[in-house]
């Protein structure tokens, strides 16, 4: 056990170590220190235990050096001893108790050097049996008893517990091995008292066995409470009850007496020797009465239950009809289903409505009629007889709102031949509301709106613009009759069709300088957007409410030759395109005549030049021939 520590120490100067002079030239080393528990680390209570601390010291001299031993239990120092011998340190634990259990460790110190052993745990099992003593064995109710619980031979911090049979009657912490407890017993009979204790061995605890059992005989005191109720039976609501709470067998030897008369949890009255109370019987209040007597530590109680017959039952209010609309006629009926015929006649039981400012008037006993309000209202029926009033549960009348005249409208755009939506809506009316779409008075479709913010949409399709005016809708909730909308109004967009292009002049040849007019016409709902294209390039765009558009060129040029196309569209998002129209612009006539004139003139000039040329050639040949003849003649 322990750590091997080689520490060489040379004293340079002499000093006093724990009261003993040590040679300044001596050196030593603490080689090891160990702790052991004898006879074992696990022992039973009452065993003599020894904690042994053994140190091995090497020194340069023959005489043992002075040293200091310290024994720890947990973090607490339990033993310290100075020694100048090499003998082991012994820390005795005679007749070990559970409180001696714990973790032990030993430390040795020499000069300014020290070494600790490893930790060893001691476990002492077993506690002494507690001893219980009572100063009395026979007592009367409430008489004081002194109980003493002792843990023989035990030490340390303890919790003591006292029991009456299996019932814990007291617990308390104490630092000694004995505890006194003063108590009294209020219930008559034989009681078995015992105790036990718990010892704290941090961080654990140890519990003792049960002590000896001591019996106590508790005798009843003669004093008792008495309660009387008149009348004792056949009690109805409204009857007067006389209740008394008194003491029997009371005498001056008793301490101050207190009487308490209660109904349920409500204290009716209190006094010393007698309590009386007069009250009206009520069926809806608890009929449990209690007379309680208290004197010193004694409590005695007598209970009695009174059964009260209901004179009449709480009224029930009903409405007819079960569902009403604003300003409709309505009837409230107020009636008690049961009443005591032997005590009450039907004429004695009256009915009324609360609040008094109700708009309904009583037409017969318990029947109230009138017009429904335009807002919700709370009604309560009151039945009354012989000073007793009973209220019904509150009836909340929520008049429904008749449906208002619906409005029918288009949602988005309506295109002929395509499906589109319409909305039928009433701005007021209690749900659910049935909406019916009608065409020329015949049912087309139905939609039921059951939740707020839900709307009735219908999908239709028309084949002509006039057909849209044949639609109406009806709105109806559970009121007597429905409401009809006006006819549906709206613009029906007719998709474009029959696109035609007219060219003026319409002959196949056009010449420079001439006027050209292109006219594009179409059928459909305006506004219509027209676009002209020349050789695939956009020339002109125009939107108008007329069904045609022209493109005019005042004086044609060669650049105006090519293909022309008209494109038309409206809100139906259907685009129509014409066929390609080819326009070839020819040269002007006067330009052609000029060119032909110039060409003819050039031809004439060329002919004249050629004639003259040939004539000149011929003249030369003739002159040459004449000279030749002349020369020959000569």
TrEMBL record:
<dbReference type="Pfam" id="PF13927">
    <property type="entry name" value="Ig_3"/>
</dbReference>
<dbReference type="GO" id="GO:0009897">
    <property type="term" value="C:external side of plasma membrane"/>
</dbReference>
<feature type="transmembrane region" description="Helical">
    <location>
        <begin position="593"/>
        <end position="614"/>
    </location>
</feature>
<dbReference type="InterPro" id="IPR040878">
    <property type="entry name" value="IL-40-like_Ig"/>
</dbReference>
<dbReference type="GO" id="GO:0006955">
    <property type="term" value="P:immune response"/>
</dbReference>
<dbReference type="Pfam" id="PF17736">
    <property type="entry name" value="Ig_C17orf99"/>
</dbReference>
<keyword id="KW-1015">Disulfide bond</keyword>
<dbReference type="InterPro" id="IPR036179">
    <property type="entry name" value="Ig-like_dom_sf"/>
</dbReference>
<dbReference type="GO" id="GO:0007166">
    <property type="term" value="P:cell surface receptor signaling pathway"/>
</dbReference>
<dbReference type="GO" id="GO:0098742">
    <property type="term" value="P:cell-cell adhesion via plasma-membrane adhesion molecules"/>
</dbReference>
<dbReference type="GO" id="GO:0004888">
    <property type="term" value="F:transmembrane signaling receptor activity"/>
</dbReference>
<feature type="domain" description="Ig-like">
    <location>
        <begin position="495"/>
        <end position="582"/>
    </location>
</feature>
<feature type="domain" description="Ig-like">
    <location>
        <begin position="406"/>
        <end position="489"/>
    </location>
</feature>
<keyword id="KW-0393">Immunoglobulin domain</keyword>
<keyword id="KW-1133">Transmembrane helix</keyword>
<dbReference type="Pfam" id="PF13895">
    <property type="entry name" value="Ig_2"/>
</dbReference>
<protein>
    <recommendedName>
        <fullName>Ig-like domain-containing protein</fullName>
    </recommendedName>
</protein>
<dbReference type="InterPro" id="IPR003598">
    <property type="entry name" value="Ig_sub2"/>
</dbReference>
<dbReference type="InterPro" id="IPR013783">
    <property type="entry name" value="Ig-like_fold"/>
</dbReference>
<dbReference type="InterPro" id="IPR003599">
    <property type="entry name" value="Ig_sub"/>
</dbReference>
<dbReference type="InterPro" id="IPR007110">
    <property type="entry name" value="Ig-like_dom"/>
</dbReference>
<keyword id="KW-0472">Membrane</keyword>
<dbReference type="InterPro" id="IPR050488">
    <property type="entry name" value="Ig_Fc_receptor"/>
</dbReference>
<keyword id="KW-0812">Transmembrane</keyword>
<keyword id="KW-0732">Signal</keyword>
<keyword id="KW-0325">Glycoprotein</keyword>
């Amino acid at each position: 056990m322990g750590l091997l520590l080689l520490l060489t120490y040379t004293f340079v100067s002499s000093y006093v170590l724990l009261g003993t002079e040590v040679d300044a030239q001596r050196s030593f080393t603490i080689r090891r220190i160990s702790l052991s528990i004898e006879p074992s680390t696990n022992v039973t209570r009452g065993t003599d235990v020894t904690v042994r601390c053994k140190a091995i010291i090497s020194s340069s001299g023959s005489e043992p050096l002075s040293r200091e031993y310290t024994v720890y239990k947990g973090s607490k120092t339990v033993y310290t001893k100075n020694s100048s011998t090499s003998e082991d340190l012994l820390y005795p634990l005679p007749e070990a108790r559970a409180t001696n259990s714990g973790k032990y460790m030993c430390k040795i110190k020499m000069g300014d050097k020290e070494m600790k052993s490893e930790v060893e745990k001691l476990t002492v099992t077993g506690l002494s049996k507690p001893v219980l003593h009572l100063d009395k064995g026979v007592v009367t109710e409430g008489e004081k008893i002194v109980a003493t619980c002792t843990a023989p031979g035990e030490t340390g911090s303890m919790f003591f517990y006292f029991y009456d049979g299996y019932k814990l009657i007291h617990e308390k912490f104490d630092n000694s091995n004995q505890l006194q407890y003063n108590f009294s017993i209020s219930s008559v009979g034989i009681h078995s008292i015992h105790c036990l204790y718990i010892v704290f061995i941090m961080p654990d605890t140890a519990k003792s066995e049960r002590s000896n059992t001591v019996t106590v005989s508790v005798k009843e005191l003669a004093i008792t409470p008495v309660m009387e109720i008149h009348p004792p039976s056949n009690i109805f609501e409204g009857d007067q009850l006389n209740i008394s709470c008194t003491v029997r067998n009371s005498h001056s030897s008793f301490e101050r007496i207190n009487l308490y008369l209660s109904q349920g949890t409500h204290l009716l009255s209190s006094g010393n020797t007698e309590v009386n109370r007069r009250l009206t019987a009520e069926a809806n209040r608890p009929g449990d009465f209690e007379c309680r007597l208290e004197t010193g530590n004694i409590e005695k109680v007598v209970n009695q239950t009174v059964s009260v017959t209901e004179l009449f039952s709480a009224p029930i209010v009903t409405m007819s009809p079960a569902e009403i609309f604003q300003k409709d006629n309505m009837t409230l009926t107020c009636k008690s289903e049961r009443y005591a015929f032997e005590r009450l006649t039907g004429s004695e039981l009256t009915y009324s409505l609360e609040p008094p400012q109700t708009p309904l008037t009583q037409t017969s006993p318990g029947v109230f009629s009138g017009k429904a309000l335009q807002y919700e209202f709370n009604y309560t029926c009151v039945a009354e007889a012989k000073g007793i009033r009973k209220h019904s549960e509150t009836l909340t009348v929520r008049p429904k709102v008749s449906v208002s005249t619906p409005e029918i409208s288009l949602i988005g755009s309506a295109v002929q031949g395509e499906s589109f939506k319409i909305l039928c809506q009433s701005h007021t009316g209690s749900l659910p509301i049935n909406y019916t779409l009608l065409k020329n008075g015949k049912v087309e479709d139905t939609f039921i709106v059951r939740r707020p913010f839900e709307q009735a949409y219908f999908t239709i399709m028309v084949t002509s613009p006039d057909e849209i005016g044949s639609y109406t809708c009806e709105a109806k909730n559970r009121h007597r009759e429905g409401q009809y909308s006006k006819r549906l109004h709206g613009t029906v967009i007719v998709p474009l069709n029959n696109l035609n292009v007219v060219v003026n002049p319409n002959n196949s040849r056009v010449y420079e300088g001439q006027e050209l007019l292109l006219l594009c016409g179409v059928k459909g709902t305006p506004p219509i957007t027209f676009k002209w294209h020349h050789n695939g390039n956009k020339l002109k765009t125009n939107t108008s409410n007329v069904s045609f558009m022209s493109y005019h060129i005042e004086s044609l040029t060669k650049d105006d030759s090519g293909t022309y196309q008209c494109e038309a569209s409206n809100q139906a998002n259907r685009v129509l395109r014409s066929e390609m129209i080819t326009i070839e612009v020819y040269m002007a006539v006067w330009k052609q005549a000029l060119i032909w004139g110039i060409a003819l003139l050039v031809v004439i000039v060329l002919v004249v030049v050629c004639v003259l040329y040939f004539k000149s050639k011929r003249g030369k040949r003739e002159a040459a021939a004449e000279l030749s003849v002349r020369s020959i003649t000569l």
